Structures are given as C-alpha cells and as structure tokens.
Amino acid sequence: SYLLIWGELPTKDELADFEKEIRRRRRIKYRIRDMMKCFPETGHPMDALQASAAALGLFYSK
After folding, report:
1. What is the Cα–Cα distance from 22 to 7, expressed in whole angstroms?
2. In this structure, what is the dihedral angle of CA atoms 4, 52, 31, 21, given to the nearest 10 degrees?
3. What is the domain count for the chain?
4. Which residues are CB-contacts of 15 (< 8 A; sequence separation ≥ 6)?
5. Residue 19 belongs to what domain range?
6. Per-residue model confidence as pLDDT tens digits over 26-40
C-alpha cells in the first residue's frame, strides 16, 4: 500500500514507520468491538459491516 500511496518503494526505515502508523490507526474502541461480539452469528456479514461502520461515526467524529 505504501507504493500505491506514495508512488515509490519505501526504504526499510520508511516501511517500518509506515507499518507502525498503520498499526496505531487501525485500533478501534473497545466498545465497538464489544458491540460487534453481540451480533448474531447467523447474520449476514454485510449487515454486520454496515452496522459497525455506522457506529464508528459515534466514536470518531473527525
């Protein structure tokens, strides 16, 4: 994904920094994770994705 974003291959240091930033930003609030655990196992994955994406707006207003 670095190549797609920046248009060039990263150095080892750039890649390490990029991966660190991606890991930091992919965390979700524990309340969202707890909500997702309550979804029925028989539910359709797209419904779970839609509900989760809508709920993200309640926690991440920016």
Report:
1. 17
2. 0
3. 1
4. 2
5. 2-59
6. 888 888 889 999 999
